[in-house]
Specification:
- With 417 residues, the protein is of the alpha/beta class.
- The protein has 18 helices and 16 strands.
- β5, α7 and β6 form a beta-alpha-beta unit.
Protein backbone atom coordinates (compact mmCIF):
# COMPACT_ATOMS: atom_id res chain seq x y z
CA UNK A 1 0.00 0.00 0.00
CA UNK A 2 1.28 3.45 -0.96
CA UNK A 3 0.80 5.85 1.93
CA UNK A 4 0.94 9.62 2.12
CA UNK A 5 1.90 10.94 5.56
CA UNK A 6 0.86 14.47 6.46
CA UNK A 7 3.75 16.70 7.54
CA UNK A 8 7.38 15.55 7.55
CA UNK A 9 8.69 14.07 10.78
CA UNK A 10 12.40 14.72 10.26
CA UNK A 11 14.38 17.95 10.31
CA UNK A 12 14.79 18.08 6.55
CA UNK A 13 13.99 20.96 4.26
CA UNK A 14 11.13 20.12 1.91
CA UNK A 15 12.15 21.39 -1.50
CA UNK A 16 9.60 23.26 -3.59
CA UNK A 17 11.26 21.75 -6.69
CA UNK A 18 9.30 18.56 -7.27
CA UNK A 19 10.56 15.46 -9.05
CA UNK A 20 10.97 11.74 -8.41
CA UNK A 21 13.92 10.30 -6.45
CA UNK A 22 14.28 13.50 -4.45
CA UNK A 23 14.92 14.02 -0.77
CA UNK A 24 15.07 17.18 1.31
CA UNK A 25 18.40 18.46 2.60
CA UNK A 26 19.36 18.48 6.31
CA UNK A 27 20.39 21.37 8.52
CA UNK A 28 23.97 22.59 8.36
CA UNK A 29 26.77 21.69 10.76
CA UNK A 30 26.96 25.32 11.85
CA UNK A 31 28.06 25.95 15.43
CA UNK A 32 25.55 28.55 16.62
CA UNK A 33 22.39 27.77 18.55
CA UNK A 34 20.62 29.67 15.79
CA UNK A 35 21.74 27.00 13.31
CA UNK A 36 19.82 24.45 15.38
CA UNK A 37 16.82 26.74 15.87
CA UNK A 38 16.46 26.94 12.08
CA UNK A 39 15.01 23.44 12.37
CA UNK A 40 12.05 24.66 14.42
CA UNK A 41 10.51 25.96 11.19
CA UNK A 42 10.51 22.38 9.88
CA UNK A 43 9.23 20.38 12.85
CA UNK A 44 8.03 22.92 15.40
CA UNK A 45 8.50 21.61 18.94
CA UNK A 46 11.08 18.84 18.68
CA UNK A 47 8.71 16.53 20.52
CA UNK A 48 6.75 16.44 17.27
CA UNK A 49 9.48 14.28 15.75
CA UNK A 50 8.72 11.51 18.23
CA UNK A 51 4.99 11.23 17.57
CA UNK A 52 5.14 11.94 13.82
CA UNK A 53 7.82 9.31 13.27
CA UNK A 54 5.76 6.63 14.98
CA UNK A 55 3.30 5.84 12.18
CA UNK A 56 6.12 5.92 9.63
CA UNK A 57 7.96 3.26 11.62
CA UNK A 58 5.26 0.94 12.93
CA UNK A 59 3.34 0.42 9.68
CA UNK A 60 4.16 -2.07 6.92
CA UNK A 61 3.68 -0.41 3.52
CA UNK A 62 5.23 0.25 0.11
CA UNK A 63 8.02 2.50 1.34
CA UNK A 64 9.70 3.26 -2.03
CA UNK A 65 6.42 4.61 -3.39
CA UNK A 66 5.15 6.39 -0.28
CA UNK A 67 5.91 9.92 0.88
CA UNK A 68 5.71 12.58 3.56
CA UNK A 69 4.14 15.83 2.45
CA UNK A 70 3.05 19.12 3.99
CA UNK A 71 -0.35 19.28 2.33
CA UNK A 72 -1.23 22.71 3.69
CA UNK A 73 2.07 24.17 2.46
CA UNK A 74 1.40 22.66 -0.97
CA UNK A 75 -1.96 24.44 -1.11
CA UNK A 76 -0.43 27.72 0.04
CA UNK A 77 2.17 27.44 -2.72
CA UNK A 78 -0.61 27.96 -5.25
CA UNK A 79 -1.66 24.42 -6.13
CA UNK A 80 -5.42 24.10 -6.50
CA UNK A 81 -7.59 21.78 -4.44
CA UNK A 82 -8.41 19.80 -7.59
CA UNK A 83 -4.72 19.42 -8.42
CA UNK A 84 -3.93 18.11 -4.93
CA UNK A 85 -6.93 15.77 -4.93
CA UNK A 86 -5.98 14.28 -8.31
CA UNK A 87 -2.29 14.00 -7.39
CA UNK A 88 -3.06 12.21 -4.13
CA UNK A 89 -5.52 9.83 -5.80
CA UNK A 90 -3.06 8.97 -8.59
CA UNK A 91 -0.02 8.29 -6.42
CA UNK A 92 -1.34 6.99 -3.08
CA UNK A 93 -3.79 4.45 -1.67
CA UNK A 94 -4.42 6.08 1.72
CA UNK A 95 -3.49 9.17 3.73
CA UNK A 96 -2.22 9.06 7.33
CA UNK A 97 -2.78 12.22 9.37
CA UNK A 98 -0.80 12.45 12.62
CA UNK A 99 -1.83 15.26 14.97
CA UNK A 100 -1.28 16.22 18.60
CA UNK A 101 -3.20 18.63 20.84
CA UNK A 102 -5.20 20.36 18.09
CA UNK A 103 -8.40 20.70 20.15
CA UNK A 104 -7.50 24.09 21.53
CA UNK A 105 -8.56 27.71 21.53
CA UNK A 106 -7.40 29.74 18.54
CA UNK A 107 -7.86 29.19 14.84
CA UNK A 108 -6.82 26.17 12.77
CA UNK A 109 -5.43 25.92 9.27
CA UNK A 110 -8.36 26.20 6.87
CA UNK A 111 -6.15 25.11 3.99
CA UNK A 112 -5.80 21.63 5.50
CA UNK A 113 -9.54 21.36 6.19
CA UNK A 114 -10.39 22.03 2.55
CA UNK A 115 -7.82 19.49 1.36
CA UNK A 116 -9.09 16.73 3.65
CA UNK A 117 -12.63 17.45 2.53
CA UNK A 118 -11.60 17.00 -1.12
CA UNK A 119 -9.41 13.89 -0.81
CA UNK A 120 -11.29 10.83 -2.03
CA UNK A 121 -9.08 7.98 -0.82
CA UNK A 122 -9.16 6.49 2.72
CA UNK A 123 -7.89 8.71 5.53
CA UNK A 124 -6.57 7.46 8.88
CA UNK A 125 -6.28 10.06 11.65
CA UNK A 126 -4.32 9.51 14.87
CA UNK A 127 -3.04 11.48 17.84
CA UNK A 128 -5.80 14.08 18.26
CA UNK A 129 -5.94 15.47 21.80
CA UNK A 130 -7.21 18.22 24.06
CA UNK A 131 -4.94 21.13 24.91
CA UNK A 132 -7.13 22.41 27.76
CA UNK A 133 -10.19 21.24 29.67
CA UNK A 134 -12.54 23.26 27.40
CA UNK A 135 -15.40 22.84 29.85
CA UNK A 136 -17.62 24.99 27.60
CA UNK A 137 -17.45 22.27 24.97
CA UNK A 138 -17.50 23.08 21.30
CA UNK A 139 -18.52 26.67 22.03
CA UNK A 140 -14.99 27.33 23.30
CA UNK A 141 -13.46 26.58 19.90
CA UNK A 142 -12.83 28.79 16.90
CA UNK A 143 -15.08 27.88 13.94
CA UNK A 144 -12.01 26.85 11.93
CA UNK A 145 -11.11 24.23 14.55
CA UNK A 146 -14.70 22.96 14.62
CA UNK A 147 -14.60 22.64 10.83
CA UNK A 148 -11.35 20.67 10.97
CA UNK A 149 -12.69 18.28 13.61
CA UNK A 150 -15.91 17.83 11.65
CA UNK A 151 -14.14 16.88 8.44
CA UNK A 152 -11.84 14.50 10.34
CA UNK A 153 -14.91 12.88 11.90
CA UNK A 154 -16.68 12.66 8.54
CA UNK A 155 -13.81 11.51 6.33
CA UNK A 156 -11.61 9.32 8.53
CA UNK A 157 -11.99 5.55 8.51
CA UNK A 158 -10.29 5.81 11.92
CA UNK A 159 -10.53 8.99 13.99
CA UNK A 160 -7.97 8.12 16.67
CA UNK A 161 -7.66 10.32 19.75
CA UNK A 162 -5.15 10.32 22.59
CA UNK A 163 -7.26 9.15 25.49
CA UNK A 164 -10.63 8.74 27.16
CA UNK A 165 -11.00 12.39 28.12
CA UNK A 166 -10.60 13.52 24.51
CA UNK A 167 -12.92 10.74 23.32
CA UNK A 168 -15.61 11.78 25.80
CA UNK A 169 -15.25 15.46 24.85
CA UNK A 170 -15.50 14.63 21.13
CA UNK A 171 -18.59 12.47 21.60
CA UNK A 172 -20.33 15.19 23.60
CA UNK A 173 -19.44 17.69 20.86
CA UNK A 174 -20.97 15.45 18.18
CA UNK A 175 -17.78 13.88 16.78
CA UNK A 176 -18.99 10.37 17.46
CA UNK A 177 -16.32 8.49 15.47
CA UNK A 178 -13.53 9.47 17.90
CA UNK A 179 -11.84 6.40 19.41
CA UNK A 180 -9.28 6.44 22.22
CA UNK A 181 -6.19 4.62 20.92
CA UNK A 182 -3.41 6.57 22.65
CA UNK A 183 -0.35 8.23 21.16
CA UNK A 184 1.22 6.15 18.36
CA UNK A 185 4.68 6.99 19.69
CA UNK A 186 4.08 4.51 22.52
CA UNK A 187 3.82 1.66 20.01
CA UNK A 188 6.75 2.24 17.64
CA UNK A 189 9.16 0.16 19.78
CA UNK A 190 6.98 -2.25 21.78
CA UNK A 191 9.79 -4.69 22.51
CA UNK A 192 11.90 -1.96 24.13
CA UNK A 193 9.04 -0.58 26.18
CA UNK A 194 7.87 -4.02 27.27
CA UNK A 195 11.43 -4.85 28.32
CA UNK A 196 11.71 -1.91 30.75
CA UNK A 197 12.92 -3.08 34.14
CA UNK A 198 12.14 -1.91 37.68
CA UNK A 199 14.60 0.71 38.85
CA UNK A 200 15.85 1.68 42.29
CA UNK A 201 17.60 4.91 43.13
CA UNK A 202 21.40 5.00 43.12
CA UNK A 203 23.55 8.06 43.70
CA UNK A 204 25.51 7.27 40.54
CA UNK A 205 22.40 7.20 38.32
CA UNK A 206 22.64 9.11 35.03
CA UNK A 207 19.41 11.06 34.73
CA UNK A 208 17.94 12.72 31.64
CA UNK A 209 15.40 15.48 32.16
CA UNK A 210 13.43 18.07 30.21
CA UNK A 211 11.14 20.91 31.11
CA UNK A 212 10.30 24.48 30.22
CA UNK A 213 13.49 26.52 30.52
CA UNK A 214 11.93 29.23 28.39
CA UNK A 215 12.70 32.87 29.28
CA UNK A 216 9.04 33.84 29.26
CA UNK A 217 7.95 30.82 31.30
CA UNK A 218 10.74 31.41 33.78
CA UNK A 219 8.60 34.34 34.90
CA UNK A 220 5.08 32.97 34.35
CA UNK A 221 5.73 29.44 35.68
CA UNK A 222 8.81 29.92 37.80
CA UNK A 223 7.54 27.77 40.68
CA UNK A 224 6.93 24.83 38.34
CA UNK A 225 10.38 25.12 36.80
CA UNK A 226 12.27 25.72 40.02
CA UNK A 227 10.54 22.81 41.76
CA UNK A 228 11.91 20.44 39.14
CA UNK A 229 15.37 22.04 39.20
CA UNK A 230 15.58 21.70 42.98
CA UNK A 231 14.37 18.10 43.08
CA UNK A 232 16.83 16.67 40.54
CA UNK A 233 20.13 15.17 41.76
CA UNK A 234 23.10 17.53 41.81
CA UNK A 235 25.28 15.33 39.61
CA UNK A 236 25.01 13.13 36.51
CA UNK A 237 21.98 14.96 35.04
CA UNK A 238 21.42 15.96 31.39
CA UNK A 239 18.84 18.48 30.18
CA UNK A 240 17.02 18.28 26.82
CA UNK A 241 15.79 21.44 25.14
CA UNK A 242 12.69 20.86 22.98
CA UNK A 243 11.32 24.22 21.87
CA UNK A 244 12.77 26.79 24.25
CA UNK A 245 15.96 27.82 22.47
CA UNK A 246 14.42 30.19 19.93
CA UNK A 247 13.61 32.56 22.79
CA UNK A 248 17.27 32.92 23.79
CA UNK A 249 17.71 35.67 21.20
CA UNK A 250 20.82 37.21 22.76
CA UNK A 251 22.94 34.06 22.33
CA UNK A 252 21.60 32.57 19.08
CA UNK A 253 24.46 33.91 16.98
CA UNK A 254 27.43 33.04 19.20
CA UNK A 255 29.84 30.77 17.32
CA UNK A 256 31.03 27.57 18.97
CA UNK A 257 28.20 27.03 21.47
CA UNK A 258 26.46 24.27 19.50
CA UNK A 259 27.84 20.92 18.33
CA UNK A 260 25.55 19.38 15.72
CA UNK A 261 27.49 16.11 15.71
CA UNK A 262 26.79 15.41 19.38
CA UNK A 263 23.51 17.39 19.55
CA UNK A 264 24.91 19.37 22.49
CA UNK A 265 25.20 22.96 23.67
CA UNK A 266 28.30 23.98 25.61
CA UNK A 267 27.41 23.01 29.19
CA UNK A 268 29.85 25.34 30.91
CA UNK A 269 28.46 28.35 29.09
CA UNK A 270 24.83 27.34 29.55
CA UNK A 271 25.18 26.65 33.27
CA UNK A 272 26.62 30.11 33.82
CA UNK A 273 24.09 31.78 31.54
CA UNK A 274 21.06 30.27 33.27
CA UNK A 275 22.42 31.13 36.70
CA UNK A 276 23.31 34.72 35.81
CA UNK A 277 20.13 35.52 33.89
CA UNK A 278 17.46 33.43 35.62
CA UNK A 279 18.86 32.46 39.00
CA UNK A 280 18.94 28.73 38.26
CA UNK A 281 21.56 27.74 40.78
CA UNK A 282 22.41 24.28 39.53
CA UNK A 283 24.52 22.69 36.82
CA UNK A 284 23.82 20.04 34.20
CA UNK A 285 26.48 17.76 32.75
CA UNK A 286 24.99 17.96 29.26
CA UNK A 287 22.51 20.15 27.39
CA UNK A 288 21.00 18.35 24.42
CA UNK A 289 18.96 19.62 21.48
CA UNK A 290 18.12 17.07 18.79
CA UNK A 291 17.52 17.32 15.06
CA UNK A 292 16.39 13.71 14.67
CA UNK A 293 14.59 11.16 16.79
CA UNK A 294 17.30 8.53 16.43
CA UNK A 295 19.94 10.70 18.08
CA UNK A 296 17.49 11.49 20.87
CA UNK A 297 16.81 7.82 21.56
CA UNK A 298 20.49 6.95 21.42
CA UNK A 299 21.39 9.66 23.94
CA UNK A 300 18.56 8.48 26.19
CA UNK A 301 19.87 4.91 26.03
CA UNK A 302 23.09 6.02 27.76
CA UNK A 303 21.11 7.24 30.77
CA UNK A 304 19.64 5.15 33.56
CA UNK A 305 16.45 7.12 33.97
CA UNK A 306 14.29 9.93 32.60
CA UNK A 307 12.43 12.23 35.00
CA UNK A 308 11.04 15.32 33.31
CA UNK A 309 8.22 17.72 32.58
CA UNK A 310 7.87 16.78 28.88
CA UNK A 311 5.80 13.80 27.74
CA UNK A 312 7.71 13.02 24.55
CA UNK A 313 11.04 13.28 26.34
CA UNK A 314 9.77 10.41 28.46
CA UNK A 315 8.48 8.51 25.44
CA UNK A 316 11.82 8.88 23.62
CA UNK A 317 13.55 7.42 26.67
CA UNK A 318 11.17 4.47 26.92
CA UNK A 319 11.51 3.83 23.18
CA UNK A 320 15.22 3.39 23.87
CA UNK A 321 14.62 1.06 26.81
CA UNK A 322 15.24 3.68 29.52
CA UNK A 323 12.66 3.85 32.35
CA UNK A 324 10.79 7.13 32.69
CA UNK A 325 8.74 9.10 35.18
CA UNK A 326 6.75 11.79 33.39
CA UNK A 327 5.93 14.92 35.36
CA UNK A 328 2.99 17.15 34.50
CA UNK A 329 0.80 20.09 35.43
CA UNK A 330 -1.72 20.05 32.57
CA UNK A 331 -4.43 17.80 31.19
CA UNK A 332 -2.56 16.93 27.98
CA UNK A 333 0.10 14.96 29.79
CA UNK A 334 -2.28 13.79 32.51
CA UNK A 335 -4.49 12.20 29.84
CA UNK A 336 -1.64 10.46 28.03
CA UNK A 337 0.04 9.11 31.15
CA UNK A 338 -3.29 7.85 32.49
CA UNK A 339 -4.30 6.16 29.24
CA UNK A 340 -0.97 4.40 28.79
CA UNK A 341 -0.29 3.82 32.48
CA UNK A 342 3.05 5.63 32.24
CA UNK A 343 4.69 6.23 35.65
CA UNK A 344 3.86 9.84 36.46
CA UNK A 345 3.66 12.53 39.13
CA UNK A 346 2.43 16.11 39.34
CA UNK A 347 5.23 18.65 39.48
CA UNK A 348 3.48 20.34 42.39
CA UNK A 349 3.65 17.08 44.36
CA UNK A 350 7.43 16.74 44.06
CA UNK A 351 7.99 18.60 47.32
CA UNK A 352 6.32 15.73 49.18
CA UNK A 353 9.02 13.21 48.28
CA UNK A 354 12.77 12.97 47.94
CA UNK A 355 14.11 12.13 44.49
CA UNK A 356 15.10 8.68 45.75
CA UNK A 357 11.59 8.03 47.07
CA UNK A 358 10.09 9.24 43.78
CA UNK A 359 12.15 6.74 41.80
CA UNK A 360 11.62 3.83 44.18
CA UNK A 361 7.87 4.47 44.37
CA UNK A 362 7.07 4.92 40.67
CA UNK A 363 9.53 2.41 39.20
CA UNK A 364 9.20 -0.40 41.73
CA UNK A 365 8.52 -3.97 40.64
CA UNK A 366 4.84 -3.55 41.45
CA UNK A 367 4.56 -0.23 39.61
CA UNK A 368 6.29 -1.55 36.50
CA UNK A 369 4.11 -4.67 36.52
CA UNK A 370 1.01 -2.43 36.48
CA UNK A 371 2.45 -0.38 33.63
CA UNK A 372 3.27 -3.45 31.54
CA UNK A 373 -0.16 -4.96 32.13
CA UNK A 374 -1.77 -1.74 30.94
CA UNK A 375 0.65 -1.56 28.01
CA UNK A 376 -0.41 -4.97 26.74
CA UNK A 377 -4.02 -3.77 26.71
CA UNK A 378 -3.31 -0.48 24.92
CA UNK A 379 -0.96 -2.14 22.43
CA UNK A 380 -3.53 -4.78 21.56
CA UNK A 381 -6.28 -2.19 21.16
CA UNK A 382 -4.08 0.02 18.98
CA UNK A 383 -3.12 -2.84 16.69
CA UNK A 384 -6.75 -3.94 16.39
CA UNK A 385 -7.96 -0.44 15.48
CA UNK A 386 -5.18 0.18 12.96
CA UNK A 387 -5.83 -3.18 11.32
CA UNK A 388 -9.57 -2.52 11.14
CA UNK A 389 -8.77 0.74 9.34
CA UNK A 390 -7.11 -1.22 6.54
CA UNK A 391 -3.45 -0.61 7.40
CA UNK A 392 -0.83 -3.30 7.98
CA UNK A 393 1.57 -3.30 10.92
CA UNK A 394 5.26 -4.11 11.09
CA UNK A 395 4.94 -4.44 14.88
CA UNK A 396 3.06 -7.24 16.61
CA UNK A 397 0.66 -7.18 19.57
CA UNK A 398 2.35 -10.42 20.66
CA UNK A 399 5.66 -8.66 21.25
CA UNK A 400 5.06 -8.90 25.00
CA UNK A 401 5.45 -12.67 24.96
CA UNK A 402 8.55 -12.36 22.77
CA UNK A 403 10.12 -9.84 25.15
CA UNK A 404 9.48 -12.10 28.13
CA UNK A 405 11.12 -15.03 26.34
CA UNK A 406 14.16 -12.94 25.49
CA UNK A 407 14.51 -11.63 29.03
CA UNK A 408 14.21 -15.12 30.47
CA UNK A 409 16.57 -16.83 28.04
CA UNK A 410 20.29 -17.28 28.43
CA UNK A 411 22.32 -14.92 26.31
CA UNK A 412 25.89 -15.25 25.15
CA UNK A 413 28.24 -12.74 26.80
CA UNK A 414 29.19 -9.68 24.80
CA UNK A 415 32.73 -9.92 23.50
CA UNK A 416 35.20 -7.49 25.04
CA UNK A 417 38.63 -6.42 23.89
Amino acid sequence: MRLLFYRPAQTLYTSSVSTAFQQGVPLSSGTTIGNHVDGYKLTGNKGNMIHRMAMLQLLDFDRPNSAQMDLAALRKSGKSIDYIKDFVREHFDAVVLTFSNIIRKGDSDGFLTDIIKAIDIPIVTVGVGLQDTLSDGIQALDPTTVALLQVLNDRSVLFGVRGHRTQEWCHEAGFEKAKAIGCPSMFAYPQNIRSLKPTHYRRSMRVMTAGHLHPRLLDAQKARIMTLMAKLPKKHVSYVFQSELSAYTDILGIEGLYNEASSEIDAGFMNGYLQNHFGINRSFDHYYCFNDAGSWRQAASFHDLYVGDRIHGGVAAMQAGTPAIVLYEDIRVAELTAFHGIPNAKVSDLKKHSFADLVDMHLSSEAMARFKKRYEITLGNFCQQIGAAGLELIISPNIAALADRLIGSERAPVATV
